[in-house]
Amino acid sequence: MTDRKQTDGKKAVWVYHRHKILKGELEFYRYKNGNLKIDFNDEDGLRYATLSADVDIVLKLKNDEFVAKTYSENSGLVEQFIENGYFVRTGIEVPVGIASLQPVLKVPFFFEENE
Fold it and tell me: I want to staple 99 with a disulfide (CB 3.0 to 4.6 A). Which of 39, 57, 71, 115 is the partner?
């Protein structure tokens, strides 16, 4: 569940997924546990994919870090954001349910007004 009152912002992006070029925006929220949630919305404003995983982990993430969802329908999608400089690998991976280890990524342009 997401607390949509804590919107952090949006960033326009382009990606190639499922044999088509998609124009849209990255939208930033916070999960109830405080972790960063990132959605990729298409140009009509509809959620195309949630790029983050909502997990409770012992590791304390920084405000600009999130656990990526690179499996299932997101296969190949998050990697493009890394290649294009939207996300940066931290070198940390964490278990997410029955999926393989998922990377903790950093958003290099991320900021919060209250910092």
Answer: 71
Name the residue ranges covered by the structural domains of the chain. Answer: 2-106
Contact 32, 17 (CB under 8 A): no
Q: Tokens at residue 59, please?
A: 């590791």
With a CB cutoff of 8 Å and minimum separation 6, the contacts of 5 are none
| Alpha-carbon span 78 to 62, nearest angstrom | 19
pTM equals: 0.80
CA distance 2 to 6: 9
pLDDT per residue rounded down to tens, the chain (115 residues): 333 333 445 666 767 666 778 888 899 989 988 889 999 998 898 999 999 999 877 678 898 999 999 998 888 889 988 988 899 999 999 988 888 899 999 998 765 544 4
Q: Are 36 and 52 in contact (CB under 8 A)?
A: yes
The HSE-up count of residue 23 (CA atoms within 13 Å, CB side) is: 2
